[in-house]
Structure formats: C-alpha cells, structure tokens
Amino acid sequence: MIVEILIKVTNMKRFVIILISFVLFSTFIYSQEKAPQTLEQLIDSIRLEMEKNHIPGLLLSIVKEDSVLYSGGMGYADLADSIPVEGHHLFRMGSITKTFGALSMILLEREGKINLDAPLRGIAPEIEFKNKWEETHPVTIRNLLHHTSGFDDMRLGSMYNWEGKEMSAIDFVQNNQNSLHCRWKPGTRFAYSNPNYQIIGYLIKKISGVPFQQYVDEKIFKSLGMELSNLKSEMDIKSNYSTAYQWGDGVHKEIGFRNIPAGMAGALNSNAEDMTKLLQFFIGDGKVDSMQIFSPEEITYMETPATTLASKAGLEYGYGIGNSSSNYKNKITFHGHGGGIDGYVSDYSYNREYDLGYALSNNGGRSLIAISSLIKEFLTKDILAPEPESKPIDKSIFEKYEGYYRSISPRNKIANFIERLIGGNRLFLQKDTLYQKSFMKEPRKLIHTGDNQFRLAEYNYPTKILLTKEDGNLAYSDTGMLYEKTGFWKVLLLRILVFGSVIIIVTMVPITLIWIVMALIKKIKCKVFQRLLIPVMTLVFFILIIVSMNLILNDPFRFAKLSLPSVSFVVLSILFGISSLLTLWNSFKNKEKIKSKLLKIYYCAVGIAFTISALYLTLNGIIGYRFWIG
C-alpha cells in the first residue's frame, strides 16, 4: 500500500515536472516565434535580447496615440556602481542630432532669414570647398540638409578632439576641410556626409547670431519640453550621464566620454523623458500639448527626399531633411533617424498615420536591430498590411535596363575599393518579372508599382527607381544609393584579378609552413630557402595589413591619432608594396633555378598575385594611408 502511494506520488511529481517543462518550453517557443502581445511580454523579450547581445543599459521610450507606454530605462547606466538606467540618464545620441539641425533650418526659413536653395558660397564665402561644377550645380543649403552635396564623409583623423580645446562653429567645419570636395555634381546623388551638418551648425550660428547650441536649446529643446537635452561635446559633471562601454574578451570595458567634435552632426545628449517628448511632437503633427510648434506640412517637408535624381523622378522613399524612411514587414513606413557614436547606438522611429513611435539608445555600442524589430512587431501587431501596389511590366521598356550596375555614390572615398569589387548589382528580366542580383546573394524579385518604381516583395512602398542620367547613361537608385550601368566584363576582370590573387596568396600560408619545417629538418638547401624568404616576408606583411584593417573596423579610436598602431599600418603597407615588387622581380629572376615546372609556375604566380594586390591597394589610396590626418 505504501509502495503504491509512493509510486503514485512519484508519478504525479514526474507529471507535474513534465507539465511545467512543457509550459515553459511552449512559452519560450511562443516568445521566439510570435510577436509580444502585451507590454510585459515585450519588456521580457527586450531583456532577453539585452542579455544575449551584452547590452549593459538601455534608454527606452514607447508611445502610442495619446499614451506613453514606456519612458525610462533598463539595465545599468553604470556597471561599476550598479546604477540602473532611469528616465533622466543622458545617453549620447550621435546622428539623431541632425533632426534638430533640420528643425532649426526650417524655422529660420519660415522666419525668412534664409533661402534653402541659396548657394552656400554666397551665404558663407569663408567656408572653403572644392566644386568644379559650381557655375551650373552650386552646393546649396538644401543639398547639405539632404546629403546631396557630394562631400566626402568625416575622416578618422577628424573624429576626435585630442587637445580638448574649446571649438567654435567654424572650427567644427574647418576640422573636416579635407572632406569638403564635391565628388560629383551636387544635387544628383545621395551620400551621407557628417560635414554637411557641421556646416549647418555654422550657418545657424551665423544667421541667428548666437551659437548653434544656444539656438537649438532656446528654439527647439525648450519648445518641445526637452529639459535636459544638450549639444555638449564634453561631459557636464552636473548632469546624470550613462557610462559608455565596449564589449570584448567577455567583459564590458569602460571607454569614457570621448571628446568628439561632431557639432550639429552628432553632439546630442538626451534621455528617455526628452525623447518621449520628441516622439509625441512628431506623431502629434508638430504639436506640443495644444500648441502648434511646427505645421504638419513642415513635418512632411522634413520627411520627403528632394534634390536627388531619384526624388526628382518621383521616388518618395529615402532621406529627407534630418529624417529618413524605412519599411517594416509590408505594413507601415517609419520615419526617424539613427545614430552611432563611441560606446552608443541609438534610434528613433515613428509613424504619424498610426500615431506610434519609439526611441532607443544603449551604452554598449551594440546593434539595436533585434530590439527595434521586437518593438515594431508589438506596435504593429493589430495593423493589417495594406494591399501593396503592383503593375505589369512592359518588356519593351525595361529590356534596355538589363545588365550590370556599379555603385557611384560611396559614402567614404577611402572605402570605395570594396564597393568596386562587391558593391554592384545585376538586373535581369525573367518571365515578365525584374530581378536584382547582388554579389554572392540570391536574386530578389522586384515588383513594379508604376513610373519605373519598384518595391521588394516584403515592402509596401517602392524603394527603387530606374533612371536615365543627365549624360544619357542608364542608372537606378536603390534606397538612396545610385548605380550606373556598365559592362560586366570590367567588373568580372577586376574580380578575377583581385580575388584570384588573394586565393593564390592564401595558398601560401600552408606552403610556407611546409617550407619552414623542411628548412628546419634541412630538407631544403639554405640558398633555396633564401630565395623563398622575400615572398614569405611579403606574406607576413599582407597578413599584418589584414589584421590592422580588422582592428581599424573594431576599434578606430586607436588609429585616429599619431600612434604606434597608425604608424605601423603606414610602414607595413609600404613594406608590402615594396616587397611585392621584389617578389615579382625575384620570381622571374630565379625561375630558371627551379627544377620543378609546377613550382616554377606557382613561384611566378605568387609574385604576380602580390603585385596585383599591392597595385589595387595603391590605386585606391590604401598603401601608406595616414588615418590620423583629417
């Protein structure tokens, strides 16, 4: 009897354990596959993402219609002292600053103090820049606001104020003097450039007569009720700032409040309470409480792209004035701006039609894509996706657009060597449907919506448009980037030369190890190994350059000033160039001394591969590049 009772109890315990496990497992699966249905579920999901992505602290604001669903923080503002993030903690918002530069210029235009279509050279002749098309295509204020000036982006050497000196509005501009050259006709292509908005900061100061920080504070922050937000490049010890961290080697490393001379391009410090006010301002069509600060037309004006070839042809998707658009799961289009600055990644997005929005920032420099998606999924869960527009294709019109297109609007000139290799796309027709094929990606179906505009299947809004440039060349714009039709054989030849060279160089790694082992056991004569020494050294230089480039991407701070890492890159890259030529010369000079025909061919191929790689890097300005020069 007792045994039977024990068995029943044991079985019941097992059943309860299994039941609980099933419920927990089902909840986990549900949370992974289904949109959060309640605010509590959303917060739990965000916490899981924070833990998974090593996010120390998060600024979070969520608004819908007349309600503030969340305004505060999660995680820690300071790990060392275990200080949790609260609504008043300031986070560095990076390029979200541009929204306030745009609002300021719209206000000055409304007051009749500036014409946005006026040439920059006429308003501020003291700003020096190069534009060989100035007579026919001058740089206008509108070009600056829409990022269509053609200026290069901020260079690494201009990103930090090492001396900590106080900088004026014109200092911010002059700090980026080397970026102020038009790479193409202004007002034709979009290319994001921080110096555009540093010039906007100077113009605000010149037109208003007060520093741009003061103007934005008095005219924008105070009007919107953003009480603690500021545009300071140095930490104000009186304010409650979150601490910036960088994740590495399994720990969060504090990186401090770096003095970055971003000015009107990225100096904003804000908190959850103030970002909530900004969201309410936008979804309220420019109203704060019952007061109309900006008109709905002015907000639409901000959201609408202009001046590019694509926008002139009718494409409404893209970058407006300090405001960009993005689709979400074929449901709605969000507007807003993102931002990234050392130790922080931020984003705010809103939709005025459905009166909803959110703002995020984290102090770990981590991606916010997963968390943004969770919030968007939650906010749009009750919204039915509209029937997207679709129109048939006239093959006789679109056949001429078939072919390969290369990117012609790179954000950074120095990174263009990568764009040339992998940045292009191929358009082709198949069964009355246009497809886009990117490098090493599956073709994507493009759906025609009319007027040469196309959308992806998962979008409800066209983001691409087929164009004819002023010079008659065919082109197409894809989410802001401009591509021009070119012969694919040019790109194919370049890829064969560069990628083929890299493959040959990579094969040298195991072969070099074999050579070293054979030399150590004296299977290779000393004279033979001496001939192999030059290509081996060239391989070492090549590997060190790759390692340096990876370090630059992960920690640019170390290369932005004259330092051992930055100087080492210059020396190593020059040595690689020289040793590549020596390898080529040595391989052909000594090929007759090599008995094996196969080894002779390989030896010469290595010399050619190194030379092609060095030549490609030289032509693109990488060899000897001094990152510390702005």
Tell me what the structure shows.
The protein is an alpha+beta fold. It folds into 3 domains: 91-379, DD-peptidase/beta-lactamase superfamily (Beta-lactamase, 3-Layer(aba) Sandwich); 395-486, Lipocalin, CATH 2.40.128; 502-619, no CATH class. It has 18 helices and 21 strands. It has helices spanning 2-33, 39-52, 97-110, 120-123, 141-145, 169-174, 194-208, 212-224, 272-283, 296-303, 309-312, 369-379, 395-398, 416-422, 488-520, 526-554, 564-589, 597-619, and strands at residues 57-64, 67-78, 83-84, 91-94, 245-248, 251-254, 268-270, 287-288, 291-292, 324-328, 332-341, 344-351, 356-362, 403-407, 425-430, 433-438, 444-450, 453-456, 464-468, 474-478, 481-486. Strands 14-15-16-17-18-19-20-21 form an 8-stranded antiparallel beta barrel. It has a 7-stranded antiparallel sheet with strand order 3-2-1-13-12-11-10, sandwiched between helices. Strands 4-7 form a two-stranded antiparallel ribbon. Helix 15 crosses helix 16 (526-554), helix 16 (526-554) packs antiparallel against helix 17 and helix 17 runs antiparallel to helix 18 (597-619). The longest helix is centred in the C-terminal third of the chain and has 33 residues, at 488-520. The radius of gyration is 29 Å and the shape is globular. It starts with a helix and ends in an 11-residue tail after the last helix. Mean pLDDT is 90; it is low at 1-33.
